[in-house]
Amino acid sequence: MKRASIKDIARIAGVSVATVSYVLNKKEGQRISEETKKKIFEIAETINYVPNKIAKSLQNNKSKLLGLIVADISNDFYSSIARHLEDKALKLGYTLIIGSSDENPEKFAKLTELFSQQQVDGMIVAPVAGSEEVLQRLVDKSYPLVTIDRYLKGINLPGVILNNREIAENTTNFILEKDFDQIIYIGYDTKLPHLLDRQYGFEASVKESGKDIVTHNILVGLENISEEIQAKLKIVLGENPKNTALYFSSNKLAVAGLSYLQKTNIKVPEDVSVLAFDETEAYQLFPAEITYVKQPLEEMAHEAVQLLDMQISQYSKTAKKITLSGELIIKNSTK
């Protein structure tokens, strides 16, 4: 069956192809009567006219594709935010292409190159350590680009981030009010500023509290997370930990730590209390409901897509940064 075209609508309506194009594309400045506009829309609906997106993208020099680069799409945080981004992008007529960098700067660079070859209109990225040069090249080319969840120092880009340090300070104060004998912070051995903000927020709150309390920092690499956490928790906790709080700076670290506690029969919250950044469905596998910091994923996605669309449409070229806050969801894993 032949696909209905603008020419068919023009022939039936008795108007020019240009008039139909103006009406369907809602272009301003043309003296076309409301009666004619109504007639064209009715005919288009009657003959099931569907715009040729490929032809339109060639005409506008736009692919209506967006690239998304996250650290790991299998992580609940990134898979959830990707879904919100996809929904928000679709409402603006974009299709999302997704890739995982696996925290590897070389893979991150290859993904940006691949997306450029696919002629995506712009990218939303969670930058990895060591990707500064790649991002700066895109900035120098005025390529539409927005960072999400993370930022890198020295790169002036539009982005949507969380006020990680302030949240870390507030959640640490929440723990300090409970008078634990020791607090253990479990984070990453990293140069990524947003994760360091969480660590520095924890350390600042402990110092400012003036409390005589034992604290430990367990910092692990991005590989062999479970093995490192379990080995280090074994040393720091010992066999019979009491009145101790564990502060995990991500859901991935929390799941690895909780697995160790369950395996060694350390009870939550009877023996140790647990608080974690980010939620994950994996928390449901453990007996205690986990206290966690909930990030505003839908709002982050909305702001990121809006920032990118403004660049693509050339409404804005400013490196606007939007900082959002999280919410502490208190469950029974903290006494």
TrEMBL record:
<dbReference type="InterPro" id="IPR000843">
    <property type="entry name" value="HTH_LacI"/>
</dbReference>
<feature type="domain" description="HTH lacI-type">
    <location>
        <begin position="4"/>
        <end position="60"/>
    </location>
</feature>
<dbReference type="InterPro" id="IPR028082">
    <property type="entry name" value="Peripla_BP_I"/>
</dbReference>
<dbReference type="Pfam" id="PF00356">
    <property type="entry name" value="LacI"/>
</dbReference>
<dbReference type="InterPro" id="IPR046335">
    <property type="entry name" value="LacI/GalR-like_sensor"/>
</dbReference>
<protein>
    <submittedName>
        <fullName>Transcriptional regulator</fullName>
    </submittedName>
</protein>
<keyword id="KW-0805">Transcription regulation</keyword>
<dbReference type="Pfam" id="PF13377">
    <property type="entry name" value="Peripla_BP_3"/>
</dbReference>
<dbReference type="InterPro" id="IPR010982">
    <property type="entry name" value="Lambda_DNA-bd_dom_sf"/>
</dbReference>
<dbReference type="GO" id="GO:0003700">
    <property type="term" value="F:DNA-binding transcription factor activity"/>
</dbReference>
<dbReference type="GO" id="GO:0000976">
    <property type="term" value="F:transcription cis-regulatory region binding"/>
</dbReference>
<keyword id="KW-0804">Transcription</keyword>
<keyword id="KW-0238">DNA-binding</keyword>
